[in-house]
Amino acid sequence: MKDNYDLVVIGGGPGGYEAAIRAGQLGMSVACIEKRVYKGEPALGGTCLNVGCIPSKALLDSSHRYEATKHDLEEHGITTGDVEIDVAKMIERKEGIVKQLTGGVAMLLKGNGVDWLQGWGTLVDGKGDEKKVKFTALEDESETVITAKNVILAAGSVPIDIPVAPVNNEEGIIVDSTGALDFTETPKRLGVIGAGVIGLELGSVWRRLGAEVVVYEALPEFLAAADKDISKEAGKLLKKQGLDIRVDTKVTNAEVKDGQVVVTSEKGGESSEETFDKLIVCVGRRAYSEKLLGEDSGITLTDRGLVEVDDQCKTNLDGVYAIGDLVRGPMLAHKAMEEGMMAVERIHGEKAQVNYDTIINVIYTHPEIAWVGLTEQAAKEQGYDVKTGSFNLAANGRALAQSEGQGSIKVVADAKTDRLLGMHAICAGAGDIVHQGMIAMEFVSSIEDLQLMTFAHPTISEAVHEAALSADGRAIHAIQRKKRK
Predict the structure, then answer these.
(1) Which residues contribute to the annotated binding site?
(2) Which residues form the catalytic set?
(3) How far is CA 67 from the centre of its chain?
(4) I need a surface site. Which of 81, 138, 370, 476 has the fewest CB within 10 A?
């Protein structure tokens, strides 16, 4: 550790460690402060690599393979004996992936000359040319003030707690998203509060492994942020799979009794009780600011407790930036990554920019749910004369060959200019499919551009082509009422 750096990054999650690596590539002297301890060891990677994106996807993949082996292979002519799941082995695999990736991040920091300071970082004064950051060592809690020309705040977020369902991950009955990744056996009955990304993904994992899953959602609409056609289809498919999703239902109390949890909920003025073996609380996340800012830091916060920044993630103080879950916008790892690199390149004098109109959202259920850009409803609210096109995967040859004929792809466009405004998908690999829409939108493509492209046959991507053709009544593998222009 040195006394002075060109850049100090507080937070070693996806946004923070990528910012530190990019700064190292540009020749800056860099320190990355991260205090996380995972399974008894200091760990980089933030929530995403340790207890979020990566471990949850590992469990989703394992559970999907189990369910497919148990229920879906017979139609392919494949017969098996008794199929069992070793939950402990599944968790062990997940831990191995986490360890490999977090260890890889540590090597990347070292390889790019970044000092990883294990402990807490507090911006105590960001107003002068030399910013002051107090570093509290994880090992012995000793405090050192280091200076930096620039600081990036990247402390991330933590799950929101609700008084009616107090989380105790150590007890393991009422847990948050972190605790839900460490169940040692499949619960017979599982309750989930929140039908958002985390609730649907974790609910899907344990439902596939045999749990009876009830998902409580206080909002009257299911997946309100998604396009209505996609959310409607998603609701039907997930309920068909066995998820009992109850919208407009508010949990008013959750109490542990005799090793189980009794959940009280209310809908339409009527109250009811149900008992579960486990309850997952996943109602959202909040910016994590514990020990991040000293009393004299000078940083301006919003009414919601976020760090106030401009479009380039610059705070009200010169040389101080904030990124990721600490600032406005969706709490997504890939958003934080791009913001981190943008901030570093701005510090370096470059004119980097993040296009917030093309940030992709993905829910890793099966089939996946993903979108980029405007929904049909949002486009109309913004005054566009909208045209849309959709195509069902049931008419896609590759999807049927893979037993993945569920779902659809939808495009949203400006009818006047033909410009693509959004792409929405619920299908196998939807998270990858919508990247085609993101790239097209980055290049201000029209629906006609997509129509004129040659898509390989047979691929699921052909459904993108058909959806684009459908916007003008030209889809070949679907009967449409709209006549060709």
Answers:
(1) 57, 121, 194-201, 217, 284, 325, 331-334
(2) 457
(3) 24
(4) 81
